[in-house]
Automatic annotation (TrEMBL):
Organism: Harpegnathos saltator
Molecular function GO terms recorded: nucleic acid binding; zinc ion binding
Phylogenetic placement of the source organism: Eukaryota, Metazoa, Ecdysozoa, Arthropoda, Hexapoda
Ranges where the record places region Disordered: 111-137
InterPro entries xrefs: Znf_CCHC_sf
Protein name, per record: CCHC-type domain-containing protein
């Protein structure tokens, strides 16, 4: 179906695989209630992702988009795992460094947007700030 998207399976160092799957909410809730999804002889666990705040890919800050961005901090096109230009995060093996925290002079030894990142508005979606699931007019 057109409303089902499955990304490639990524293997962990322990040999287990994980895949990102996007589907409508109703089938996802049905599989979640059933305790997972049967794949061959195994049962795959399901985790529903929470809404994330909108992020600008020009300045890497949150709660606005590039089309309305008025900042030019030179972070556009940077890898979100190390902050350097010229490559993407897929297959990344270098030291992780948050480009936005580094730019702001904060501790940056973490992945941008991860649990240790101080630039992410954690409760924004609960207070009504725009998220990736918000309706846009």
């Amino acid at each position: 179906p057109d409303d089902l998207q499955i990304r490639e399976i990524r293997r962990s160092s322990g040999g287990l695989g994980a895949a990102w799957v996007q589907c409508p909410l109703a089938p996802a809730q049905k599989q979640l209630a059933a305790g997972g999804l049967v794949v061959g002889w195994a049962r795959a666990s399901i985790r529903v992702l929470e809404d994330r705040p909108i992020q600008c890919f020009k300045c890497l800050r949150y709660v606005h988009m590039a089309v309305t961005c008025q900042t030019d901090n030179g972070l556009a096109g940077r890898c979100f795992r190390c902050g350097r230009a010229g490559h993407v995060a897929k297959g990344f093996t270098e030291v992780v460094r948050c480009p936005l925290c580094q730019y702001e002079g904060k501790k940056a030894d973490h992945r941008m947007g991860g649990p240790a990142c101080k630039t992410v508005p954690r409760a924004a979606s609960k207070r009504g700030a725009p998220t990736s699931k918000s309706k846009r007019r």
